[in-house]
Amino acid sequence: xxxxxxxxxxxxxxxxxxxxxxxxxxxxxxxxxxxxxxxxxxxxxxxxxxxxxxxxxxxxxxxxxxxxxxxxxxxxxxxxxxxxxxxxxxxxxxxxxxxxxxxxxxxxxxxxxxxxxxxxxxxxxxxxxxxxxxxxxxxxxxxxxxxxxxxxxxxxxxxxxxxxxxxxxxxxxxxxxxxxxxxxxxxxxxxxxxxxxxxxxxxxxxxxxxxxxxxxxxxxxxxxxxxxxxxxxxxxxxxxxxxxxxxxxxxx
Length: 252
Ligand code: PGA
Prior knowledge:
This protein is an alpha/beta fold. It has eleven helices and eight strands. 2-phosphoglycolic acid binds at residues 8, 169, 174-175, 178, 207-210, 228-232.
């Protein structure tokens, strides 16, 4: 089993900062390949080619984009297509992050189109799902996220589904205003996701306030096969430490 450990930089980092982070990672991985771990990084669009150039074509680190349009080209002002993302060196296409659902009108239907477009171009879809605090408090977490996932993955055959990575990121646990989820709170949602998707998808990741203190415990939850991280990984030492934690977990 491979543990996926990746970061989205969201809307942060200049090109110089992106270059510094990626150069540091490349240099560290020159002498150390974390065994059993699949690293990935998802910069802003502007830094895609910079990070690709720094990492090199054969890097063990997969490169992604935080969003991409499902059409290959056309009159979609402000959008970037999966085809263009692939051309810039991306291998992963994220969709469905709660910030995009909340602020940019991402829906179950658009995540479905984006997952399909990623697969059509041979990229890995990284589908984010997660419920609000209201849904959680009403006891509906598992049903809600299963519905989000099923809607986005509708119509995929077994081989296509096997390319998909799912990241469960409860909205109430994400970002500065989120609070870290406890292991106890995550057992049930991951049991539900595990029953539906373990061994059928490429990964079932957890995301939302992952930090150096909770990472090992989060990886210990049944069915969790990776971490999708924001703030803790934005400084390279934090990301490297998460890779070390995952490597230790994979070896245990
Ligand atoms: P965070 O972000 O780790 O900073 O909470 C997680 C995410 O949005 O994926």
